[in-house]
Amino acid sequence: MLNGSGKFIVRSAWEILRITEVKKEIFDNIWVKGVPFKVSFFLWRVLKKRLPIGEELIKMRVVDNVRCCCCNEGAHETFQHLFLTCPATMRVWETFIAATGNQIHFLQLVVTIKKWWKVDSPAKLISLYKSIPAFILWHVWRRRNATRHGESMNFSNLIFEINRSLYNLARTRYPWLKYLPKQWPLIVQFLEVYTPLISHKVVAWEKPQRDTFKCSCDGLSKGNPGPSTIGFCIRDWEGNLRYAEARKLTESTSLIAEAGAIKVGMEFCFNNGMTPVVVETNSLIMKKVLDGVSEVPWSISLEIQNIKCLMEKGQISMKHIYREGNQLVDYFTNLVVHFVGTLISNSLQELPGEGKNIILLDKNRTANIRIQKCQNSNYGFQDTTTNIYNNIS
Ligand SMILES: [Zn+2]
């Protein structure tokens, strides 16, 4: 029970004592992120044959004979028949596989499900393909129950219910897509050719004008709300560090931390004669709030009042900068959030190596590349078809 270093650890003892089973691939694929628990759990019940289906009721001698109520073939209600070979069910399987451009030979239920999980698919479709067997079985079962209780659900409705579940899953998985086709064959086509467009921008820290200071501010919240840090650093017109400070806050949100950082940074500049000063924040919300473009969130109304008071005294201006150009203070806040205490530095020499490097790179106007995904494009995809499921009656 000793580990490689000759020490006793509970984990090594647990590994010896616990009884392990060989991992079953089949159960690894049942749980797909975004699929409702009841649907995944239903698939598990089918695979474990734990359903009050005719086949099982006969085995338990509850009844002598149960015929499938979803077709006129007079077949026994077995897992294999209801969930695979019943004519309507078979058409459902075929309809959904046809849209993917793949082929499966539907011979045995468990084999069919396993094949679905292994269908070759582009990355964006993996989870959707994996979830299809669960959705098909779930809706076939709902249809069977409705029919058994005297209601009806025709074939088209069955298809549309499964389609809706898949669309909802795609929406949950890719909430940033502004456009997403609603029908399964088009969803497949759309996500097959999905390539996010990337844009880039060159961002560099700029020295302020002569005789002006620059105060870079940043607020950080791990968890939002969670442990937070505020930081600011002041550099002169030559890019030399004059003062830096970062300290922890109690549990807070990103917005409160951003506002706190600006307020504390401004106060320091004002009280220590480091004016005129350009105060920089990478929080676009804060910039908009201070410009009067956005409403003041109630959680920071007091800070905003204080900041505006300081700004009214003059010699302070606000500027927005991308995070890539605000690396020094970002480095300070990240450093402090992982340690207890405060970081105060009056000169370059007192800083850790990484901080010194950032200052030197900023002085030389070394550019950082800001990369952004364009999420609103539909990438030239054309939704041309209205009657996409052929031959549905
Ligand atoms: Zn049937």
UniProtKB/TrEMBL annotation:
<dbReference type="InterPro" id="IPR012337">
    <property type="entry name" value="RNaseH-like_sf"/>
</dbReference>
<dbReference type="InterPro" id="IPR026960">
    <property type="entry name" value="RVT-Znf"/>
</dbReference>
<dbReference type="Pfam" id="PF13966">
    <property type="entry name" value="zf-RVT"/>
</dbReference>
<dbReference type="Pfam" id="PF13456">
    <property type="entry name" value="RVT_3"/>
</dbReference>
<feature type="domain" description="Reverse transcriptase zinc-binding">
    <location>
        <begin position="8"/>
        <end position="93"/>
    </location>
</feature>
<dbReference type="GO" id="GO:0003676">
    <property type="term" value="F:nucleic acid binding"/>
</dbReference>
<dbReference type="GO" id="GO:0004523">
    <property type="term" value="F:RNA-DNA hybrid ribonuclease activity"/>
</dbReference>
<dbReference type="InterPro" id="IPR002156">
    <property type="entry name" value="RNaseH_domain"/>
</dbReference>
<dbReference type="InterPro" id="IPR044730">
    <property type="entry name" value="RNase_H-like_dom_plant"/>
</dbReference>
<dbReference type="InterPro" id="IPR053151">
    <property type="entry name" value="RNase_H-like"/>
</dbReference>
<feature type="domain" description="RNase H type-1">
    <location>
        <begin position="217"/>
        <end position="334"/>
    </location>
</feature>
<protein>
    <recommendedName>
        <fullName>RNase H type-1 domain-containing protein</fullName>
    </recommendedName>
</protein>
<dbReference type="InterPro" id="IPR036397">
    <property type="entry name" value="RNaseH_sf"/>
</dbReference>
